[in-house]
Amino acid sequence: MNENKKKELERFAARIRLETMKELKELGFGHVGGSMSIVETLAVLYGEVMKIDPNSPRWEDRDWLVVSKGHSGPAVYATLALKGYFPLEELMTLNKPGTNLPSHCDRNKTIGIDMTTGSLGQGVSTAIGVALGNRLDKRSSYVYLIVGDGECDEGQVWEGALYAAHQKLDNLIAFVDANKKQLDGYTKDVNDLGDICEKFKSFGWDIYNVDGADVEQIYDAIEAAKKAKGKPSVIVLDTVKGKGCSFAENAEANHHMVIDAAQAEKVIAELERKVVEL
Amino acid sequence: MKTVLVKENVKEKTMMRDVYCQTLMELAKENKNIVALDADLMSSMGMVPFLKAYPERTFNCGIQEANMMGMAAGLSATGKIPFAHSFGPFATRRCFDQIFMSCAYAKLNVRIIGSDPGVTAAFNGGTHMPFEDMGIMRNIPGVTILEPVDTVMLKDLIRQTAEMYGIFYIRLLRKNAVGIYEEGSGFEIGKAVKLREGKDATIIATGIMVNEALKAAAQLEQQGISAGVINMFTLKPIDKTAIIEAANETGAVVTAENHSILNGLGSAVAEVLSENAPVPLERVGVEDVFGEVGPEDYLRERFGLTADNIAKKVMKVLERK
Lengths: 278, 321
Fold this sequence. Notes:
The complex is a heterodimer of chains A (278) and B (321). With 278 residues, chain A is α/β, with parallel strands linked by helices.
């Protein structure tokens, strides 16, 4: 990846983070932690990798994104708005009565959302279904799937992991947002996941482990995953819950937070500076 | 809609599961989007011919009902028309949240086949004996619940659902049904079929209890009681008009189902009657207990799923008129 492209994606990530923060500040509470930890991945997917057309969100030959950790909705909405799926102003309606932007992703409400998620683990299976359907119709599309590390507690994740490998689904590329935390604390304390990479490897997946805040590493892993034939790929993202949002990063419990307007303003000012600098 | 004729009280020669498989194969030939999913019960369901004819359109994910329902939802998002099967309890209670969110809440397009309804699970016993499947599914907004009574109806309903959009739960006897309808009969989803006119009471029945209801009505006729019979093969959306008309015409209703009387047909009819045409109601069905192992005939007696019990309840409801 050349320096300009890298800069561009870093700037896109900063803008996604900025708009996400504005959304959550307006609402006054929300899923800060898990929204912020996947921002760089969203920037790479929507900024560079995915075959999409914001003017034709249901284009049959598009690439799909299933955000199984549906509570990352705010970051996904910011990304979609910045890509022009809907006006940026709409972001201010997050969770308000009658909004098209609910806490958890909803394919029937938000333009550009490919799959309804929220109840954890389920996006794995729906993503597999989409990948199977695309393969049957001989479409060259990829299905990208984001699951949380805490979400990997769900048995359904592993049902899907087993069957996707059995089906040799090489048009499915999954990410695990390994931010090491879940609602009740650190994943190692709640229900230790052990080595996530080794687990997927033993299920027959092609595995990558990258710094989830490094757009270049994420991009390179996706490109490598696309070359892996005959098996699904998983990119385990080493991430920080609440990344780039100091008050959230520093908080012990940052899955869902009440957001202090003054603190949010500070983060917004920092991110605005960063966007300009980049 | 063709005229519907009632057959004699005889079992059909062809098993329901074979007609299901044949119909799906015909549909698959006509429409490349038809796909079949199963959770390691394809042989039990008689779906091996489908698998052989359409291996690339068959997804047997092993014993993973939750994953199967999510995959069915995902496949339908790409335009596929999935039929996903497991035994009734595992097609509903085992994966309720996946049906609820991935399929129904997401407004996707999935047909769920739950086989071996109620006592027909027989030797698999209480763990496999769904008295709650329709009740579970009735809780989900917008779901269509169907219980085809014989192969004629099964064929017609499967064909219809293939062309419709939404979430369908089809409660399916795998073995031989008693034939109720003549070949070529047509059915309208959401519209009950009146099988027998009556003056004194109406029996509203579904599934294997339709034939029992017809037998009960014949018995009652000997005693000078005129009981009508309605086949309520669509539990949801339920045919309110038919229920209200039955109440107005006969002034007493008995329901009969191979299912718990809680949350199934008995409850649904009670809701319609109490809000629209309150007349005395008696319910024949499983009375809030678990299933158990045994031959089907024994289980029918054990849980009161018999013509005699229906006739008894008709007498009781008449006393309350």
